[in-house]
Structure formats: structure tokens, C-alpha cells
Write a structure and sequence with these properties.
single chain, about 400 residues, mainly alpha, two-stranded antiparallel sheet, 19 helices
């Protein structure tokens, strides 16, 4: 055990390059189970003959640049602490994997809090040399790397998690995006995303969609659009979710002309818009006062046989209210209730406000009383989400 740790130290002092061939992973085909999860959420074995995959491949990446921060030499004291930690963790791994996992998580958290990410890397690398993969420890390290905008480290952790842990949480995607907040090196980013797409096969499109969304959530709109524009070069085919995500991103930042253009491109590519597509268009066009376009989209939605839902009615009732067309707004409200779609408090407030502005105070008061008497039956947040059919 001590010998293994010493060998690991020698390995880390080397300035060579660790090469990882993602095609080897894809080549497994249906043997996608790289290891098996123990009941304690850590890998304790790997398929016989599976190519050796080291943590944070490559440490000095020929494509993306030097990875010097990971290879920083530790002081003798730090090396002794690492030996002690490893010995304790290894000693409990076989018999009490839960305890070893918790101990490892605690040490990684402590190292990250102290800013000593290189030692955390060494600890996890040594565990990987023993075919032990503890996802929570990697996630802790990913958070720390993102906070320090360490892009190379963040991507390497993310790729390891993607390969060995499977589907990742939204938090992992957001931390990956946060790590890129200060970079403007689009060439490097594209290369990274291409690597991730290859590793995620055959779920590449799903993973790239989530990355696009995460970058937008972190207000890195141009990077989200960059990924979208390069998606085919990653070997991915955009799907309806991809386009719906892009439409929402463009709409939220007020770029409605580009949003409409992508909507047209989507249809030309053979995609059939769904209720999410139309609601995204209507909501964002309404926000910028493009009432004429709202009417065009709503008419197309009806002609296409896509049934309106609560969000559709809210957008259109507010649209007609802004245009002063209270009769059409009231007609839609009546149609909504006939379809047994419960109105929300926002729709009532819109109707009351527009009726007051139109001088129809008595009718506004009537709707106000109706709203107050049915507060417990009004649509809530869960009613704004409709399952795909």
C-alpha cells in the first residue's frame, strides 16, 4: 500500500503527458458499464481489459495547454499527510466503503477550503489507481475549481464524472459554466465541448443541450449561442429541445428577431413546433410589445392543432389587454374555462386591470369578487407545467 503511494508520487513528479483515447470508451458499445456502483455510491471495480483511465487526463493537455497547477510539487509534510490519509482510507475501503467515502469527502472538502486543490487531485488520483471512484468528492472539487475559474481542471473533473458517474445534476453543469465566466478563448472551449460530446455518446445531444442551458443560466449568452452554432461539428444533431432552449435564451434577452429567425430555421429543418415552442414565442413577443407577431403565432398554433394551455391563455389575454381589445380578452378567458383550464391569479389581475383602464369598473369589480372567492381553486405553479403528450 505504501509502495503504491510512493509510486504515485513519482508519477506525479513526471512531466509527461497522459493520453486518453475517448474512442476506447465509445468502442465498448453495450459494455458501457465501466464499473459497478457499490451501495455506497463509489466504484470498487473496473471491467477486465478496460483501458486504464487516470483522473484528469491529460494533466498536460496537448490540445488545451499546460496543466501545471495540478502537478505542483507538494511539501514533504503534505506528502506525509497524504500517505496517512490514503492508508486510512484504503484500510477501510473493502470492509466499510461508506466510512471511507465520508472520510475522503471530508478531506477533499478541507483541502478545497484551504485552496489546496492540487492535494485534493492527488488524493483522488491515488484512489483511482486503486479503482475507487467517489463521485461526491469529485463534485466537491468541481465546485472549488469553478469558484477559482480553473477551466482546465473543471472540464477534466466534469469529463471524469460523465464517464464514471453517469447522468449529472444541474449543479454540475452550472459549475462547469461558472468556471468559464472569465475566458474568451472560444477555440479551446469548442475543443472541450467536442471532447464532452464524444464521451457522452450516444447521449451527446442531451448533454450539449444541458450545457447550453447552464451557460445561459450563468448569463453567458454568447457562449451558449456559440455552442449551438457549433453543435453539428461536435457530431450532435440538434433536437426540438435544443431549438426550444435557444428560442427561450434569445427571447429572454430581448433578441426577438433572432428568435423568430431560429423558429423559421427550425421548421425548415423539419422540426414540428410543440406547445413549449409556441408559448416561448408568445411570452417573449408579448414582453417586448410585439402584439402583431403574437397574433400571427397564436393563429399558427391554432391552425397546427396544438392546444393552448394556461401559459398560452395568459400571454394572449395580456396581449389583447395591452391592445385595448377587452372583448377578445374576455372571449379567450371564457374559452379557457370551457376547456376546464383553471385561471391563475395573474390572469384575473390582468383582466381586472384592463377593464378598469377601459372604464368598465363594474365588470372589473365582478371579476375581483370572483377571484377572491376562488383563491383556493386558482392555478398554482405546478399548473404552469404541462407534460408532453
Amino acid at each position: 500500500m505504501v509502495a503504491a503511494s510512493r509510486c504515485f508520487k513519482v508519477l506525479f513528479r513526471c512531466k509527461g503527458t497522459f493520453n486518453f483515447n475517448s474512442s476506447l470508451v465509445r468502442g465498448l458499445g453495450k459494455r458501457a458499464v465501466i464499473g459497478h456502483y457499490s451501495p455506497y455510491n463509489c466504484f470498487t471495480s473496473i471491467l477486465v481489459g478496460f483501458p486504464r483511465i487516470h483522473l484528469f487526463y491529460p494533466i498536460v493537455n496537448k490540445i488545451i495547454g499546460n496543466y501545471n497547477s495540478l502537478a505542483t510539487q507538494a511539501s514533504p509534510d503534505e506528502e506525509e499527510v497524504t500517505d496517512e490519509v490514503l492508508n486510512e482510507i484504503f484500510a477501510t475501503c473493502q470492509n466499510t466503503p461508506k466510512s471511507s467515502r465520508e472520510r475522503c469527502n471530508a478531506y477533499v472538502h478541507k483541502m478545497c477550503k484551504a485552496g489546496n486543490l492540487s492535494m485534493a487531485v492527488r488524493l483522488l488520483q491515488s484512489l483511482r489507481d486503486k479503482n475507487i471512484f467517489i463521485p461526491n468528492a469529485y463534485i466537491t472539487l468541481l465546485v472549488a475549481a469553478a469558484e477559482r475559474n480553473q477551466i482546465d481542471l473543471s472540464f477534466q473533473i466534469f469529463k471524469d464524472l460523465l464517464v464514471f458517474h453517469g447522468p449529472l445534476s444541474s449543479t454540475c453543469y452550472l459549475n462547469l459554466a461558472r468556471s468559464c465566466a472569465k475566458t474568451s478563448d472560444c477555440t479551446a472551449l469548442i475543443e472541450y465541448f467536442k471532447q464532452i460530446s464524444e464521451l457522452a455518446f450516444p447521449s451527446s445531444t442531451t448533454v450539449i443541450n444541458r450545457i447550453i442551458f447552464a451557460f445561459a443560466e450563468c448569463r453567458q449568452i454568447e457562449k451558449s449561442l456559440l455552442i449551438f452554432n457549433q453543435i453539428k461539428s461536435f457530431g450532435c444533431k440538434p433536437d426540438l429541445i435544443t431549438y426550444n432552449t435557444i428560442l427561450d435564451i434569445l427571447g429572454r434577452v430581448g433578441r426577438v428577431d433572432e428568435m423568430v429567425h431560429e423558429f423559421t430555421s427550425m421548421k425548415e429543418a423539419g422540426f414540428v413546433p410543440d406547445f413549449i415552442t409556441y408559448n416561448t414565442l408568445l411570452n417573449n413577443l408579448r414582453k417586448v410589445g410585439r402584439l402583431d407577431m403574437c397574433l400571427v403565432v397564436f393563429r399558427e398554433m391554432s391552425d397546427s392543432g396544438v392546444e393552448p394551455d394556461l401559459l398560452t391563455y395568459r400571454a394572449m389575454i395580456e396581449t389583447f389587454g395591452r391592445a385595448g381589445n377587452t372583448e377578445e380578452a374576455l372571449r379567450l378567458f371564457s374559452d379557457m374555462k370551457q376547456r376546464q383550464i383553471r385561471p391563475s391569479i395573474y390572469i384575473y389581475r390582468s383582466l381586472i386591470d384592463m377593464l378598469k383602464k377601459a372604464g368598465k369598473v363594474d365588470l372589473a369589480m365582478s371579476f375581483s369578487e370572483e377571484m377572491n372567492s376562488s383563491l383556493s381553486d386558482l392555478a398554482g405553479p405546478k399548473d404552469f407545467k404541462r407534460k408532453r403528450r
